[in-house]
Specification:
Elements: H1 3-31, H2 46-69, H3 79-101, H4 109-113, H5 120-144, H6 149-174, H7 187-210, H8 218-250, H9 253-263, H10 268-287, H11 290-293, H12 297-322, H13 330-333, H14 347-370, H15 377-390
Helix pairs in contact: 1-14, 2-3, 2-6, 2-7, 2-12, 3-5, 3-7, 3-14, 5-6, 6-7, 7-8, 7-12, 10-12
Length: 391
């Protein structure tokens, strides 16, 4: 399948997603949170999970870009630009998702000027702001003056910042001692690993579907990204086994209940079908076949399946902990439409998320053409046209 065909398909899906998202945004702006399924007990929903996913993917994309702009590894020459743009789009999507989750969206400025510097949330806000600026400046320099030594300095600073912001998300959850499912000391270590994994998957899609067919390094880049993705899948499974087995063995009721909801309770289908079958086993089976994955189309398919699995994984970290009461009597002490521990995203929440994904898709494609992130694509199209004309 040609680059042009893939773009046309994605543009069509992106426009459809925006139309669906338009209704969700309208509902959110007019009716606020009234039609969302989270409430006073489950205070974080789908949009927060997608924020964790998109922001983590952005950090991972910068980590991948550093292979080119910082470490100058020959096999990854040219990957930096498309990885940085993918990260910028992902970061924007994450920040848009979390902004829509705010009760008073117009008060976002207060986090900057009236925040508590000792708060992890305050540090994350400023960290992501700095990270976004670093990513933007790095991309502009990678396009205009790719051999500048200042780009390497920015790459080093950006790599450290990406590790900080991705680890800070783990810390934000891990410091909450009232939620034993999150209160894990390794969370700040696990989240940068998860970020790198989702960043690798996103760049794998970008290189497989949109990388220059005339680039002699393209097949090698796809294969290296595939190997790294398989290794991180194994590491993810290990982390998951360690967390679940310790939670069950420790026999803390809240922990056991949260793990039970994931494995065989309310969210069993998301874990076993979406995360394990579709997001882990299926892409692993594709990635291990070098002749298949380096053809391009299947490499992108594997990357897409990986992203689905990592997105679902963020939700399965977030929701189970919130749907377990801190106190047993809370379940019956009060009643009301938003006083429940059962949570599944409402149609409005899904619509908004679909719209954000559609916006991200169209934004990525437009930037891909305007910024000329893959220098050989135009030549590829001309050569393809000449070949068809000659035939």
């Amino acid at each position: 399948m040609s680059v042009k065909t893939i773009k046309m398909v994605l543009y069509g899906l992106g426009v459809l997603a925006l139309l669906i998202g338009g209704w969700g945004i309208y509902d959110r702006l007019v009716f606020g949170h009234a039609n969302a399924d989270y409430g006073s007990y489950v205070v974080w929903g789908l949009w927060v999970a997608m924020y964790l996913f998109f922001a983590g993917t952005a950090a991972g994309c910068f980590m991948v870009a550093s292979l080119d702009i910082l470490f100058r590894i020959p096999a990854f020459r040219g990957v930096g630009k498309i990885a940085l743009w993918t990260g910028l789009v992902s970061l924007g999507s994450g920040l848009l998702s979390i902004w829509l989750d705010l009760g008073h969206m117009d008060r976002i400025w207060k986090v900057y000027f009236q925040g508590n510097p000792s708060s992890v949330m305050f540090q994350m806000v400023w960290g992501y702001t700095l990270f976004g600026l670093l990513m933007f400046v790095s991309l502009m320099m990678a396009i205009r003056i790719p051999d500048s030594r200042w780009l390497r300095w920015l790459g080093g600073l950006g790599l450290l910042t990406s590790l900080f912001v991705s680890g800070a998300v783990g810390a934000l959850l891990g410091v909450q001692a009232a939620r034993p499912f999150w209160h894990v000391g390794l969370f700040p270590v696990q989240f940068p690993v998860f970020s790198l994994a989702s960043g690798l998957a996103a760049v794998l899609i970008a290189i497989s579907w949109f990388g220059s067919r005339s680039d002699p390094n393209r097949s090698q880049q796809i294969w290296y990204l595939s190997i790294a993705s398989m290794v991180l899948l194994i590491i993810k499974i290990y982390f998951m086994w360690a967390d679940f087995s310790q939670s069950l063995y420790g026999n803390v009721p809240q922990n056991v209940e949260a793990v039970s909801q994931v494995l065989w309770g309310e969210y069993w289908w998301a874990f076993w079908i979406l995360q394990i079958l579709i997001g882990t086993l299926a892409p692993f089976a594709i990635l291990m076949q070098r002749n298949l994955v380096t053809k391009g189309l299947w490499g992108g398919v594997a990357g897409l399946l990986l992203l689905i699995g990592y997105a679902v994984a963020r939700g399965l970290i977030l929701f189970p902990a919130l749907t377990v009461p801190e106190l047993d009597l809370l379940v019956t002490a009060f009643t009301g439409p938003h006083l429940t521990f059962d949570y599944f995203p409402s149609p409005m929440e899904w619509a908004v998320t679909i719209g954000v994904i559609g916006l991200a898709t169209i934004g990525f494609l437009i930037g891909l053409d305007i910024l000329k992130l893959t220098s050989g694509n135009r030549n590829d199209e001309l050569n393809s046209a000449a070949t068809q004309k000659g035939a």
